[in-house]
User: What shape does this take?
Amino acid sequence: MFYSLDTERAVLGAILSEPSAYLRAAVFVQEVSFYRPPHRTLWRCYSALYSRGVPLDLITATDELRRVGKLDEVGGPVFLADLASETPTAANIESWAGTVAEYALKREYLRLAFEVKSKLHETGTRAEEVSALISARVTQALTRTASGKTLEAGPLASEVIRDLAELVKSGRPFNGLATGFPALDRKLRGLKPGLHIIAGRPSMGKSQLALDIALAVARRSRVGVGLVSLEMGSREIMERILPAMSGVHGWRLKEGALNRDHFNRLNHAAAELSELPFVIQDEAGLGIVEVC
Assistant: This one.
């Protein structure tokens, strides 16, 4: 049996009890990870509420399911209330979500096994074709991400117009986060949600540029910044940050060539840094799940 309905209920119920646990579970599972269709429907409801910025709780989940005509399908308000009462804490949600994901992967491999068996019995099937099928499906199963969402055009247009109005009101030339480099901001129109890659040969300044951008975002936009470094330790990072903020050359820190004015500037930078929403993860060997 490649599923556990009790574990699926535990994941879904824990989120109703502790809405912030949704992201902790989403690192491991997505809609297709759940075996029971009503459980998939409920997860889709959670994702819809989260994507719209609606607080996720028993009432909002019930209203959302009623709005899309799926409330009876999942078992009605009584089912949701039972879920929330069954799992009053989300302390172990990572473990439960990991189990749900593990079963989903096993079911995918079982389907693949039947497909490979059927393929092998077909006349003229070459071994290379089967190898390619297995490789592609295993890679897909291991790297599958949440499926894209379908958006209604009307609400999306209203959202874009609202953002444009806020941009005009702010008087800024772009609505992304400022990097601290005007020329780069003109090219990127500020940092937008998504992945940005800084690439270059060794010792070309990639790490320093990333640090400068991180500091600019924290200082100018007051947006929380988390720095995870797989190369530099926390002290080495700080020995780069303090010169950037204080204007004291980095070589002076390395050689101890500092006077009272330098220390005053460094202390002022440290005081400002303590007020910024800026954290450093000082742990080596982190994988993507640990980072999330």
In short: The two ends are 30 Å apart (CA to CA). The longest helix spans residues 93-120. The mean pLDDT is 87. The CA atoms of residues 101 and 235 lie 38 Å apart.
